[in-house]
Amino acid sequence: MAISNTIHSIRNIMRKDPGVDGDAQRISQMTWMIFLKVFDAMEEEKEAENSRYKSPLPEEIRWRNWASNDEGITGDELLNFINEKVFEKIKNLDVEISRKAVIVRQVFEDTYNYMKNGVLVRQVINEINKIDFTSSKDRHLFNDIYETILKELQNAGSAGEFYTPRAVTQFIVDMVNPKLGEIVLDPACGTGGFLISSLENMKKEVDNIGELQTLGKNIRGIEKKPLPHLLCMTNLILHDIEEPNIKHDNSLSKPLREYSSKDMVDCVVTNPPFGGAEEDGIEKNFPSELQTRETADLFLVLIMKLLRGEGRCGLVLPDGFLFGEGVKRLARNPFALADG
Fold first, then answer.
1. Cβ of 154: how many Cβ atoms within 10 Å?
2. Residue 222, Cα to own-chain centre: how many angstroms?
3. Which of 117, 168, 322, 338 makes a 20 to 30 Å CA pair with 93?
């Protein structure tokens, strides 16, 4: 598979760079570059459909204008351009321009250029340019590469928390069976596995572009860590969602009482983090009788709050969760949040 060879070459090039330290940084570096290439490919399609389309990015930092030419700038000139122009301008994008500007700025909020050798950066860019993201064949092949990236994350220390095996996500989505027109949420979406499976399930009912756009708005996710958020956004764009509705935030940081009817959803599919790794005081966003440092407990309470009366949920929970006491016992009571 040619695209597999391309990713392998990128990996080998990055290993030579003194600024890339470990798998997680390498994957992050590769993903922001691929995101810009994917975003540019999406914009090409939009321009072909609508001659009045205007990019949210300044012309000089669009991928086509600084990266697409294999004989383009390299070395220190390229490195300085990326650090001082690309990242500087994206991180300061005017979010009033469009929803796309909000998305790109949000994606790069906590993203960094780790590479320090401009010649190696040019080599990586030239490898990425071998992938044609306007080609449905290459997009399909990239799904397999994406799975490989996620499995590598699983082996990259704590980064494994971002990855839920495809068989698990698919089984849960099959059981919940989200329908076109329903709002689907993953409040701890990681790299977007549950949302992609939900999207593919609902796409079976899509007959036109309007329905696809509605579907895109109804697929919602929240992810607090930058690398999985970037991966999730990239994957959704590759699955024809132009403006992914994925927040870079912590679902638990908003007081439970501030969630209202407009936040309610029809389906929740998720694998929330376990083990009480939240910042101090996060539990105070919940009613006193439901306060705990165990994140799985807090996510279950949040899900109960957000699900509509006939809503459905499929989630991964720790062994023995449903037989626990304290918050677990209260969470099993469907009326526990009546006053929350």
1. 15
2. 8
3. 117
Token readout for 222 is: 């929240």
- For the chain, strand residue ranges (E) read 184-186, 219-223, 245-248, 265-270, 307-315
What are the residue boundaries of the structural domains of the chain, listed by start?
Answer: 1-132, 164-340
> At a CB cut-off of 8 Å and minimum separation 6, what does 141 contact?
1, 3, 4
CATH number of 164-340: 3.40.50.150
Structure tokens at 240: 């024809």
249 is written with which tokens?
A: 């935030």
DSSP 3-state of 56 = coil
pLDDT digits (tens, 9 = 90+) for 130-148: 888 876 666 666 666 666 6
Tokens representing 139 are 């997009």
Residue 200 in tokens: 């593919």
* Closest CA relative to residue 192, chosen from 225, 149, 152, 236: 236
CB distance 251 to 299 below 8 Å = yes
Tokens of 193: 């596995």
Q: Please state, in angstroms and rounded to a whole number, the distance separating the CA atoms of residues 230 and 106.
A: 9
pLDDT, residue 142, reads 65
pTM of the model: 0.83
Nearest of 225, 230, 223, 106 to residue 158 by alpha carbon = 225
Q: Are 327 and 294 in contact (CB under 8 A)?
A: yes
Q: State the Cα–Cα distance between residues 211 and 196, nearest whole angstrom.
A: 16
What number does CATH give the domain 1-132? 1.20.1260.30
The residue among 10, 31, 34 whose CA lies nearest residue 123 is 10
